[in-house]
Amino acid sequence: MVVPPITDTEKFLARVEQRGPNQCWWWTGAIEPRGYPRLRLGSGRQAVVARFAWEIVYLRGPIPKGFIITRAEHDWDPCPDPKVCIHRMCLNPAHLRLAWKPALDAERLRAWAEQPKVHCRRNHPLTDDNIVWINRAKNKRMCKICYDNWRASRALAQQ
User: Fold this and answer.
1) Which of 42, 60, 111, 136 has its CA 20 to 30 A from that of 156?
2) Residues 108, 115: contact at Cβ < 8 Å?
3) DSSP type of residue 56
């Protein structure tokens, strides 16, 4: 008996854990080093799973230039670390949406700027006992370690 070859769509659906209509449908297949799901197609090339799902499996058509696929749940549940974002694994068609990349980048920057800073640029904790206020009116502050290093470098430069 000859077994017909499995199609790319069947391969995709075999790697998606489909759950309820409002729940995330988790990808169980391969993941690339940057944390995005990948699928090797019958042609041998790799496909970005969200794009493949949007265009081929869910039949929503080609993705216009300048647009990307994102997940709706990012609107209410931001990931603390983009490298291990669980939302990248969701392939529920109700959660996928097209987003204009420049607008999405601006939205992400705005959300990042609104988050309270708990570490300085050099990853020192910004706790009450480790803060030096530079200008309270403008809410400018530094961690004491960076402030001490900055003052020491200025003192050396003045010698």
Assistant:
1) 136
2) no
3) I
Residue type, 39: L
pTM above 0.70, yes or no: no
Residue 55 lies in a domain: yes
The DSSP secondary-structure symbol of 44 reads S
Kindly state whether residues 109 and 32 are assigned to the same domain: yes
Closest to 6 measured CA to CA, from 31, 40, 32, 52: 40
Residue partners of 56: CB distance under 8 A and separation at least 6: 8, 9, 12
Domain span at residue 143 reads 128-158
Whether residues 72 and 143 share a domain: the answer is no
- Over the stretch 2-46, which tens digit does the pLDDT of each residue have? 767 689 999 999 999 998 888 888 999 998 888 889 999 988 899
